[in-house]
Amino acid sequence: MAAVIDRPSLWHRLRPVLLGFDLPLALVVLVMAGIGLVTMYSVGYDHGTRFVDHGRNMVLAAVLMFGVSQVPPQRLQAMAVPLYSLGVALLMATALFGVTKKGATRWLHLGIDIQPSEIMKLAMPLMLAWWFQKREGQLRLLDFVIAGALLLVPVALVTKQPDLGTAILVLSAGLYVMFFAGLSWKLIVPVLVLGAVGITAIVLSGDALCQDGVNWHVLREYQRQR
C-alpha cells in the first residue's frame, strides 16, 4: 500500500523534463508551421494525400524538436565538429558522385537518397557556436575570418549543386551566429549596403537580365522567371 502511495505521479515525472522546454518558442514555431500548412492547403486545393503527409511530417518534426531540446548543450557542443565534418564530406561526395534530379545534383545515394545540404542547416550554426565559444574572451578579427571560411565552404558547395535556397538559409544561419558573437557593425553595414544596392540594381534591370540569350551560371530558368 505504501509503495502505491509513494509512487510519483506522471506530472512529477514529466516536470523535470518540461522545466527546460521553451514553451513560448515552441508555440511560435507550431503556429507558423500551422499557418504554412493551411496556406498550402488553400492555394493547392489539395484534398488528397499531400496535405495529410505534410501534417504527419509536422507532427514528427515536433516530436523530434522536443527530443533535441532535451539534449544538454554540452553534448550538442561535442557533436559540432563531427557533424560539420560529416556534412562537408557528404557535400563533397555529392559533387563527385551525386544523383541528379531535375537539373540539380543535390542527392547522394547511400542505400537511400539523402540530401546532405539539409545537415548543414543544423551543423553550420553548431560549428560556429563551438568556434566562438572556444575563442571566448580573446576574439580577434582573424577569428571572424576563420569563421567566415568555415561558413563559405558548405555555402559554395551547396550553391554549386545548385540549390540557391538552401545555400541562402545556411549562409543566414551562419551570419546570425557571427553577429551575436560580436561581429562589428563596421563590417556588417558595408555588406548590407552592397547587398541592398545589388538587389535594387537587379530589380531595376530585371527585364534586361531575364531576356532570352542572357546566360546565368547560378540561377535556373524557373528562378529567373521569379
- N→C terminal distance: 70 Å
**Share of residues in helices:** over 70%
Q: How do the helices and strands follow one another from N- to C-terminus?
A: HHHHHEEEHHHHHH
Overall tally of structural domains = 3
How many strand elements?
A: 3
Oligomer: single chain
Major sheet description: 3 strands, antiparallel
Task: Describe the structure in your own words.
This protein is mainly α and 226 residues long. The protein folds into three domains: 1-70, no CATH class; 73-182; 184-226. The chain has helices at 2-6, 10-19, 23-44, 49-69, 73-97, 117-134, 141-160, 164-180, 185-204, 206-209, 221-225, and strands spanning 99-101, 104-110, 112-114. Strand 1 and strand 2 form a beta hairpin. Helix 3 (23-44) packs antiparallel against helix 4, helix 5 crosses helix 6 and helix 5 (73-97) packs across helix 7 (141-160). It starts with a helix and ends with a helix.
Task: Please name the defining characteristics of this protein.
three-stranded antiparallel beta sheet; 3 domains; 226 residues; 6% strand; 74% helix; 11 helices
Per-chain topology:
Layout: H1 2-6, H2 10-19, H3 23-44, H4 49-69, H5 73-97, E1 99-101, E2 104-110, E3 112-114, H6 117-134, H7 141-160, H8 164-180, H9 185-204, H10 206-209, H11 221-225
Antiparallel strand pairs: 1-2, 2-3
Briefly characterize the structure:
This protein is mostly helical and 226 residues long. The chain has helices spanning 2-6, 10-19, 23-44, 49-69, 73-97, 117-134, 141-160, 164-180, 185-204, 206-209, 221-225, and strands at residues 99-101, 104-110, 112-114. Helices cover 74% and strands 6% of the residues.
